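User: Let's play a game. I give you a shape written as C-alpha cells, and you guess the letters that built it. Ready? Here's round one.
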C-alpha cells in the first residue's frame, strides 16, 4: 500500500506540474482573445475526438487560424549571421527530418516491431513539440499508454518524478524507454528513446539555421507560429484534465495535495526536488 501510495503521490504531483505549465504558457502564448480562443477550441477538439490525431489536427488548425487572422507587429530586420551551416547542408537536414517523419511510421507498420513502433512514436513526438517541453506529455501519453507499452499509472508517476531531475523534460523519454517491455527496457531502451525524441530537434535546428533570419522576418510565419503556440496551450490543457486529473484526483485529500504542490511551485517557488519528495511521502501516508 505504501508503494502504491508513493506512485499516487507522484501522479498528484504531475497535476500540479502540468497546471503550472498550462498557466505559465497561457500567460505568455495567449495574451489576446484570439489566441485564447484558439487554445480553448483546441482543448475542446482534443477532448472531443480523444485521439493522437486530434492533437496534430488542433495544432495544424491553430496554425491556419493564426496565419489568417492573427495580427502581430513586424519584427525589425536583423543583421545577417553566419551559423556555420551552408544552405545546401541545411536543406539536406530538413529533408532528412521530414523523410524520417514519413518513413518511420511506414517501417513500423510493415515490420510489426516494438522497436520500430516505439522509435517512430518518440520521433513523431519530438517533431511536433512547440512552446515548451511539457507539451510532450500528451503526445507521449497517446503513443505509449494505449498500446500497453507503459501503464498510465507508471507514465504519470514517472512524469511527476521527472520534475526532480535537472535538464530538459525530454529526458522523461529515457524513463519510458527503460520501463517498456522486451526487447526494449533497461538502459538500451532508455538510450534509444532518448535518441528518438531528440533527433528531430537536432535535425530541424541545424537545418533551419541558414534560413532562420529570413523565416523570422516573414509575417505569415510569425502569425502561423502564434496560432500554433496557442493551440499547444489548449492541447496541454486537455491533457491536464484527461489523463492527468482524471487519473490522479479521486478525493478531497488528493485535491488538497495537488493544490499544496501547485502553491509551493508557483507561489512559494520551492525546489521541484523538495515538492516531489513531499508529494511521494504524502501519497505514501495517505495510502497507508
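Assistant: Ready! My guess for every position:
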Amino acid at each position: 500500500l505504501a508503494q502504491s501510495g508513493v506512485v499516487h503521490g507522484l501522479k498528484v504531483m504531475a497535476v500540479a506540474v502540468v497546471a503550472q505549465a498550462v498557466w505559465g504558457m497561457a500567460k505568455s502564448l495567449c495574451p489576446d482573445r484570439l489566441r485564447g480562443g484558439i487554445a480553448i477550441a483546441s482543448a475542446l477538439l482534443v477532448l472531443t475526438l480523444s485521439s493522437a490525431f486530434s492533437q496534430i489536427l488542433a495544432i495544424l488548425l491553430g496554425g491556419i487560424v493564426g496565419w489568417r487572422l492573427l495580427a502581430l507587429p513586424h519584427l525589425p530586420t536583423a543583421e545577417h549571421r553566419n551559423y556555420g551551416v551552408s544552405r545546401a547542408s541545411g536543406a539536406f537536414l530538413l529533408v532528412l527530418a521530414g523523410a524520417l517523419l514519413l518513413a518511420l511510421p511506414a517501417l513500423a507498420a510493415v515490420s510489426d516491431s516494438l522497436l520500430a513502433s516505439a522509435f517512430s512514436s518518440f520521433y513523431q513526438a519530438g517533431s511536433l513539440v512547440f512552446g515548451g517541453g511539457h507539451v510532450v506529455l500528451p503526445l507521449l501519453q497517446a503513443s505509449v499508454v494505449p498500446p500497453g507499452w507503459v501503464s498510465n499509472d507508471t507514465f504519470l508517476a514517472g512524469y511527476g518524478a521527472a520534475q526532480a531531475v535537472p535538464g530538459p523534460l525530454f529526458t522523461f523519454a529515457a524513463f519510458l524507454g527503460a520501463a517498456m517491455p522486451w526487447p526494449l527496457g533497461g538502459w538500451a531502451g532508455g538510450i534509444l528513446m532518448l535518441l528518438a525524441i531528440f533527433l528531430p530537434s537536432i535535425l530541424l535546428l541545424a537545418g533551419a539555421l541558414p534560413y532562420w533570419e529570413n523565416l523570422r522576418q516573414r509575417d505569415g510565419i510569425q502569425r502561423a507560429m502564434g496560432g500554433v503556440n496557442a493551440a499547444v496551450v489548449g492541447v496541454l490543457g486537455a491533457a491536464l484534465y484527461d489523463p492527468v486529473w482524471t487519473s490522479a484526483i479521486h478525493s478531497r485529500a488528493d485535491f488538497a495535495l495537488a493544490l499544496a504542490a501547485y502553491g509551493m511551485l508557483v507561489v512559494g517557488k520551492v525546489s521541484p526536488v523538495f515538492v516531489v519528495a513531499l508529494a511521494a511521502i504524502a501519497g505514501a501516508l495517505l495510502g497507508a
